[in-house]
Write a structure and sequence with these properties.
This protein is mainly alpha-helical. A hairpin with a 6-residue loop joins strand 1 and strand 2.
């Protein structure tokens, strides 16, 4: 999956290019509110502008958003600003943005981690992505150390270099528990993958140790409800779960169902982490035609909706939107064939949903507090980045 740096930046912060094969194109827009793609783009830009204005107005005077303990929130906001279709912040940084980047840099540790208190993988990966978005050579040493740090966190619970545990190959919190999970693995894979795109112009980066991608793929499939590749006893044999993902081997945020005859507990697949699995497979260079990718895409087709996070309701809804838009953009999918018939123009559906959910002050907020989604800065950043990806693929 080789790409130029310019294509990489478009994909990462707006989503105009694709990692797999083919290129993204705009879907048919039939919503009567917008008579042309240009008027639709104007509506999207207006919503993006309002979201960015709210974010700027709610920055702490020390440069961070929401909390100084979690630099990842500030990193997400910075990526939202860097993805602005007007490219107001692509060449020069105002003083308030420079202060935010300094806060990220001040969070860097001697071992390469970028964090303040806990959640070291999450904070390091997102902060690293924000530094990549800045596109400044002086950040490359910090990016390199952060990349090496994330790679060092790859789980190996047995003999070194061998996959002898379902958790091997993934990455966990780094400070919360000692095994890997899908959320942290996705964030780490993304940062590790995109930092690799910088190696062509930095010899130090090109010589750096890489992730054991084979082991990473093994972990991913050990989180997938797909009996053909995952033989763990919790894997669901029910059609409604087939192909989807759980949080980590043996645990699903969506819970499980018990077979009364056998006593076996089968874990349920759910939306946000299934899009995360599809996206992780892309970073690991699996193509659309791979049976594991086809299986998760089939589950997502069967459970397509923008009204909730499938099997989780309002929990993690905006993370779901952000991950959904990223995964479908990466794979160059404009319309999703539905199990019930017809096709869904997901860009129209999702952007219309977000336009209707935007609050009067320009922000977004989830009514459900799980996974920090009552944090206006985090949820507004998720929403802005989602709209920016849609905007980038409209003509």
């Amino acid at each position: 999956m080789k790409m130029t740096l310019s294509k990489f930046r478009n994909l990462l912060f707006a989503g105009a290019a694709v990692l797999i094969s083919g290129s993204a194109s705009s879907a048919e827009l039939t919503t009567s509110s917008f008579s042309s793609n240009q008027s639709y783009k104007n509506e999207l830009q207006h919503a993006i502008d309002r979201g960015l204005e709210w974010l700027q107005a709610n920055q702490n005077s020390n440069g961070w958003w929401s909390t100084a303990d979690q630099p990842a929130v500030t990193g997400e906001v910075l990526m939202a600003f860097k993805g602005d279709p007007k490219q107001r912040y692509s060449k020069s940084e105002p003083s308030w943005m420079a202060k935010s980047y300094q806060f990220i840099m001040d969070s860097a540790k001697p071992d390469g981690g970028i964090h303040r208190t806990n959640l070291v993988t999450y904070n390091t990966a997102i902060s690293m992505m924000a530094l990549i978005a800045a596109n400044k050579a002086e950040y490359n040493p910090t990016i390199l150390k952060a990349r090496e740090y994330l790679i060092s966190l790859q789980t190996d619970m047995g003999e070194k270099g061998k996959v002898d545990s379902p958790f091997d190959g993934g990455i966990g919190y780094g400070s919360h528990y000692d095994h890997s999970d899908m959320g942290n693995t996705l964030q780490a894979l993304e940062a590790i993958y995109y930092s690799k795109a910088l190696t062509a112009r930095d010899s130090k980066l090109s010589e750096a140790k890489d992730l054991n991608w084979g082991a990473a793929i093994s972990f991913l499939q050990n989180c997938q409800n797909l009996p053909s590749v995952n033989t763990n006893n919790w894997v669901s044999d029910q059609e409604k779960d087939k192909g989807g993902f759980v949080y980590y081997p043996g645990n699903s945020m969506a819970g499980g169902t018990t077979n009364l005859a056998t006593g076996k507990i089968a874990l349920r697949s759910y939306g946000s982490i299934s899009y995360g699995g599809m996206l992780s497979y892309a970073y690991a260079d699996l193509k659309k035609e791979d049976p594991r990718v086809s299986a998760v895409y089939q589950w997502l087709q069967n459970n397509y909706t923008v009204d909730e996070n499938p099997e989780m309701g309002a929990q993690g809804l905006y993370y779901y939107y952000n991950t959904m838009s990223k995964a479908l953009t990466v794979y160059g999918i404009d319309e999703i064939p539905l199990a019930r018939g017809g096709k869904a123009a997901w860009k129209k559906d999702l952007s219309m949903k977000l336009l209707n959910l935007q609050q009067k002050d320009g922000s977004w907020l989830n009514t459900n507090a799980r996974w920090w989604e009552k944090d206006g800065a985090l949820v507004t950043a998720y929403s802005v980045m989602t709209l920016e990806r849609v905007y980038a693929t409209l003509k």
